[in-house]
Amino acid sequence: xxxxxxxxxxxxxxxxxxxxxxxxxxxxxxxxxxxxxxxxxxxxxxxxxxxxxxxxxxxxxxxxxxxxxxxxxxxxxxxxxxxxxxxxxxxxxxxxxxxxxxxxxxxxxxxxxxxxx
Length: 117
Fold this sequence. Notes:
By secondary structure, this protein is an alpha/beta fold. It contains four helices and five strands, in the order E-H-E-H-E-H-E-E-H. A five-stranded parallel β-sheet has the order 2-1-3-4-5, sandwiched between helices.
């Protein structure tokens, strides 16, 4: 898999899945962090890029998921998406991470993923 997409809102997840697949990427999706960790750990190889929303409902949020996946797979590229810039306060710059603010277009998301691959 090229991309693991994690978004708790079904309509947004489906739209992003279609957009990324339409950009020629092999994408797996998950509704929450726990499912995402299981999918990544059970895959023949880990994803190249994690695309995750910050707010994932109950349980682990997207920032904690990103940290755990980076711990397991240090070379993983990460795209963090959020509708609230305050969710990103204090994030340290990492060249393997891109933060996108909602709303963003398909070309911007696809470009971010390709940049990190």
